[in-house]
Request: fold
Amino acid sequence: MKLNNTTLFIISGFLVLTACNISKKETSNENENKQIAIIEPDYVTEKVAYDTDDPAIWYNEEDPSASLIIGTDKGDDNTLGGLYVFNLHGQIDREKSITNLERPNNVDIAYDFIYQGDTIDIAVCTERFRNAIRVFRLPELTPIDAGGIKVFEGDSLNAPMGIALYTQPSDGKIFAIVGRKEGPKEGYFWQYQLTNNDNDEVVGEVVRKFGNWSGIKEIEAIAVDDQLGYVYYSDEHVGIRKQFVNPDSSNVELALFGKDNFGDDREGISIYPTGEKTGYILVSDQGSNEFHVFDRSGNHDLIAELPFSTMDSDGSESSNKNFGQEFPKGIFVAMSTDKTFHIYDWRKIQRAIDER
Reply:
């Protein structure tokens, strides 16, 4: 067929429009364009009542397949939220779940906390509207804090939001690093040592104030690498900041990475070790429904940008433990704004990383 100038113009325009509509999930290398498949979950949890925010994973040493996922439901400004307990298939254990908390944002878990002369595992969450953190014994989720530990006392900016727990390898002491909805540019976090008082109630003592903030948006996500002794936190519109986590350390910032290529807020952080110093740091790119994967060692170079099934993910958690036949290399759990958490076999994520 002979093509006139009008036909050529139409065809050229069509090709330009087609090129402009290529999905951002496509990546290119020297030889080809490659479509990146969205990573789909193995299980999606039952929905909570109002607004999911952050998950944590409790590993059951005696029966790994009976491990639990603890997830927060923030509620709303007029309604109580809670801590929901899920099995690894996403089903809610309503007997263990707690639904009377005032704006619980983030939650984390620590093992071998000394309590009543024994060692127990604990889940700790922030309760923003009460200016407190809450401590629960696992797996029962029984409160052991006499109603809550007040935080940021004496400071007008005292509404807690983010939290991460640190277990000191040398002596097993456990610390809670607590962030807030609003804070100063220096000393955004207060670090509390968790202990028992004479009434066997868990209490917290301030041992450190640290953390830099840009003054833009906020900081919510905090993650601790116990093994290497670092704390990471997402300055949401700037990057991921890194400092030493030991309370006796200097407050010098060690790194600021993840400054580029984010579509929106830098949110949930989770750490997946593959060796003593190797592994991955996964950070949610909230607006793009992606997780950016950084190298755990060295300069935290960007390894991959992976699209996930979650929507506007805020919080996440990962574990490299063997959870049984379905999850022999660990699991990754991420919040989604449809009131659920998505549960992934780590092997899927590893394959996606390897294919990049």
Notes: The chain is about 5% helix and 45% strand. The domain at 48-272 is CATH 2.120.10.30 (Neuraminidase). The longest strand covers residues 104-115.
